[in-house]
Fold this protein.
Amino acid sequence: MRVLLGTRDLLFRSKLGAVAAAAGAEVVAADADLVVLEVEAPGAVERIRGLVELLRAAREAGATAVPNSQVEEALRQAILHEP
């Protein structure tokens, strides 16, 4: 599985990268199977508003939003239980 980590916090990104690697995934910059995106980045709200239809389609396809406190476990579970 290829995982894209879209976070500003380098320490958090490193932590998530370690979780992904330990679960057998490869962290990539594009063409990912799974994306972890920080929505608090500057301008993110405006970009999200512009992508409402895409987000709706992503949710219909199974995308899930989780708080930072649950991202590591959600990432681990998503990688380990990929279809």
